[in-house]
Amino acid sequence: MAAVEATTKAMETLTVSKTKELKGTEKRDSLIANEKKYQQKWQEDGVFQPDAPSTTEVPLNSISAAELRKQQPKFFGTMAYPYMNGTLHAGHSFSVSKIEFTAGFARMQGKRSLFPMGFHCTGMPIKACADKLVNEIKLFGQEFERYKEEEDEDEKAAVPTPSTHREDVTKFTAKKGKAAAKVVKKKYQFQIMKALDIPTQEIHRFADPQYWLEFFPPLCQRDLTNFGARIDWRRSFVTTDANPYYDSFVRWQMNRLKELKKIKFGKRYTIYSPKDGQPCMDHDRSEGEAVGPQEYTALRLKVKEWAPEAAEAIKGKVPEGADVFFVPATLRPETMYGQTCCFVGPKITYGVFKVSEKEFFVVTDRAARNMAYQGIFPENGVYEKVAELVGSACVGTLINAPLSVHKEGVRILPMESVLPTKGTGVVTCVPSDSPDDYATVVDLAKKAEYYGIKKEWAELEIIPLISTPSYGDLTAPFLVKKLKISSPKDKKQLEEAKELAYKEGYYQGTMVYGEFKGDKVEFAKPKVRQQLIDAGEGFAYSEPEGMVVSRSGDICCVALMDQWYLDYGEESWKQVALKHVDNADGKGLNTYTTETKNGFEGVLNWLNQWACARTYGLGSKLPWDPQFLVESLSDSTIYMAYYTIAHYLHKDIFGATPGLAGIKPEQMTDEVWDYVFARRQLGEEVLKESGIAEDSLASMRREFEYWYPLDLRVSGKDLIPNHLTFFLYIHLAMFDPEYWPRAVRANGHLLLNGEKMSKSTGNFMTLDDLTKKYGADASRIALADAGDGVADANFEEDVADNNVLRLFTLREWIEEQVKDEANLRTGPKNDFLDALFENEMNTLVHEAYTHYEETNYKLALKDSLYDFTSARDFYREASAAAGITMHKDLVFKYIELQALLLTVVAPHWSEYIWLEVLKKPSTIQNALWPTVPTPVPALSAAREYVRNTSSNITSAESAQQKKKAKGKDIGYDLTKPKKLTIYVAAKFPAWQEKYIDLTRQTWDSEANKMDEKTLNAELKKMGEMKKAMPFVQALKKRLLAGEKPEVVFERKLAFDEVKILGNMVPGLKKAAGLREVSIVSVGEGEGAEGKGGKVVGGDGVGSDVGELPANAESAVPGVPTFGFVNV
After folding, report:
1. Most buried residue among 100, 366, 808, 948 by CB atoms closer than 10 A?
2. What is the pTM of this model?
């Protein structure tokens, strides 16, 4: 650990960030000093170390686990444990914040709240990096002193970028994942370590993979502690056999899954690294996360007659009498009846590969490499190339196309868009159903001379194969015409046409030709495929859906190999998972957003067998076949259960020191794990075999039964296609439904200052950077402000920076108020400013609770901080303008509520206010959410009225100033004393009556909602939509806010408008510099034909006003108008 501390100190001297430059740090440093103090205190006091109710308090089995959880509510939440090949970055902190805020709010709801954190070390990345360093130390010396700066060359072969178009539209795909996003473009591993701020003299230590496990977990704990995370560190652990207890847990899990027939053995396609000699799963990749094998039907198109140039090229290299086959790969075997030609890329170089003495295949080298690991060539991993052919030389070759109606054969023709990175580089042509193929053969026929072909080669008859509801029975010609595609170069339209054709054909199409005529395409497809394979005219071929590069730098292929695999996708298992995700009864999985739910359903509908073992890397050995290690996405599916008892097993993350139960790793037999995790009852044989005390076993079982099920799992959305779906599958297989996960909250990636985080551009921050630069609370506020949806969120440094100042000045103001409390007003509260402020605080407390409960943290922050301080500001300023001091009780209520409302997001600041300013006896971390009266709708309406009216008066005066600036006559002099007249109306305009009646008819008082459909239909009929809709929406808003329907429909304001305005007068005079303010009730004076008014408030009460200005008539109840004159 001394080395870790030395390296940590060296790292701390390095530059924190090259993003926003801070100018002054005194306020930040003051806040951070308090944060450090409370973090240490919370740790010393074990504030975040909850335990289940003990078996002494509530004996095991005295009540059911469900009843115990009901009597003593709990919250258990986790996030995907971070991988220990680096420190945490700002993106990690975003996921952390979601579970952290939820755990904090759960505490305030009176729940025991558990948020544990482990350290993931399983898999290839650490071992691969360590092995690279071993080689680099040999090359360059222990401190890489023999390395000379040079131009970093890309070590990968130049490979054309594959199309981003999805070949198989029935599959769900995820966007670029974490593995790809975290790539640092460095040639050597020691350079990557330098980019992680590891000092050069320390890097050699990382050549030992175990050192990574010692070095990074303490830094992870340090950074999360500095962030103020409410984590129970007693329950932490490292994965792999470095911790014998966790190793035992993983081996138990694999044994049970095998017994349940969820783990099977057999040949299956898997992404494979020939260099590493093993499957390359998601976490083993530097590129291509979530890319899986794509299975095709490969066809054997036998050469009948070679084009002259091709015949010359293979002469003497292919034995006389041997059969040569062009081998296209198709996803649509059901369309092979309509083949009219076969395409090659004219500039692509193809290999002629030996299958046997009498058989040879023409494909790209890339395809041959894939086939070599799929049992297609004689020797595994060997693909013997006897000749090479340029595509252009093959044009004109006559071949036999299996199943095609053109029995005499079809020709090889050129297609410029054929890619060597997709399929075999040979493409069979079905112009009836492929828009690309149709556009190409039309172009070839038009320009036959240009392409050097005979026109008739491209004009073979196109026959109908599939009938579709939308596009008839010649889908491709229909879509090419509809989308105005004029050439094969119309890439965008052709991509669209391809997707439309495939989806419509597969899901809606019916075969109209061939042996399976009349069958739906989705049923005919596998039948035709099998027919081709059985006849020896086709075979199964698979390749990666996209580029996959292993962490060792190997471009991966697909291998068909004997291996242990988890049988994901097995029908009965899949249906249970789909039902849980559907959550129709509300007892399944809460996914929070439709996008997350759809993502799960999409993955569940295509995901199948997953290799669960490998031979290289770090991990636990497969119990029944120890030559294999359990792969990293298979040992991390139900570790949340391990958290519940980890502190009973060990005191340190490596399991070197036994925990509360004093148990040795070997005592944790499979039967003990079964008992602890409620899979069996305790028997004498378990007690005898394990030697574990019965009370220790009971305590561990209690911990599991109480904390499970997992209430919330938080993770990036890019883990839906693998980890999160596996997590669901294995929980459903291993545990009773009572313990199945309750919620998954997927979040997007985190942008920094509106741009993608990137070390190369300098727009990058670690969690350590964040807390050093802005402190924990300001960073947490900026993360809450960043967003809550599945879309990518945005951490704005300006938000963090501004909140450093906000927290500091708010703390200062609070301290001043408490210090000068003797100067605050006491006695009865008034019914205007005091009443409005208290009611607004109550409103915001209720609104914040709802938003916290719904995990909408951006909105909760708005209520808890921004709007709460705005309410304080208005009260303070309005009180000063009115010439009165603030009420002591309300100021202290504000301070206490402000501390409580911010506890979830800014706990350190709240703790300071709670303990140091308010002198409360114990930590705010144990305080409950405040209980306040229900908001009074009339006061809420009055507060809104005051806010709007004040704003409107300011706007009216500003408008007059602008007019004056443009040289217009405004009727008074801005520099001389002014009088403001406020015109109020006692009655609403007559035209609104019918809309009042309509709103009354469509409002359901019992359900507290509007019949929107009827309302909108009637509004359209009445023909005054533009005029009426804002009025109706205002009524609806009042009803939804809780105002009584009789008040709304009887045309009454919820408050006395004249009285409220009268109360506002002193403040208006002071704020706007007014000499006089009069409130005139329109239509009540002695003016001609009722157009006069009467002063009912302010200056000159009781006097009549004659002819009123034109804007006075625009006043309606609740919306006064204004006039300015000199006095």
Report:
1. 100
2. 0.77
